[in-house]
Amino acid sequence: MTKPIVVFDLDGTLIDTAPDLLASLNHCLEIAGLIRAEQTALRRFVGMGGRVMIERAFAAQQKTLAERQLDELQAAFLSHYGDNIPGGSMPYPGVVDALDRFEAAGYIAAVCTNKYEKLSTALISALGLDHRFEAICGADTFAFRKPDPRHLLSTIEKAGGDRRHAIMIGDSQTDIDTAKAAGIPVVAVDFGYTDRHVREFEPSRVISHFDELTVEMAESLIFAAAR
Fold this sequence. Notes:
Blueprint: E1 3-8, E2 15-16, H1 18-31, H2 42-45, H3 50-60, H4 67-83, E3 90-91, H5 95-104, E4 108-112, H6 117-126, E5 135-137, H7 149-159, E6 161-170, H8 173-182, E7 186-189, E8 205-207, H9 215-226
Parallel strand pairs: 1-4, 1-6, 4-5, 6-7, 7-8
Antiparallel strand pairs: 2-3
């Protein structure tokens, strides 16, 4: 029997992982002899996994990056990141209360992220939240990933959720495009990792704190999407 479901992106939505993503990125840049990235630059680099972060950081410094070097740096990134979980990463304020609200209303929860599944599960477990999610699906869980809508739809299916009674919570154009393509309403947080305001990507709703994410809001958006 399927259940109503709320699906969260991870980095920049559910968990503030910026300090640790930046540390691992700078570890790679130091290996390559490049200038360390500043915290303010992180928003331009994240959203599609560590490999793309490295590519974007190189491009920002107008440096070429051969495929073999990228492979080596990606491996270094993943090793550094995995060895330091959970580091300084923390759930955003209001996350646990929001999960409680939706659970009390009969919803299940899941994570759909472009971070690798093993790292995602390790991080969520280290923060004591793993029991809150029926499925944690990463970039390598399926043969496709966001913005492919199948990533979201397959996450819902794996969690035992009802795609007709589902809502996505994200922080980027990738999340918003994914949800729209899947025909699922999407709430965007405006405190995540994007260099453009999420309102520009026309999500169903924008929130600035998880206290604003209510069951009533979700129900109204799901109802509107079904009409």
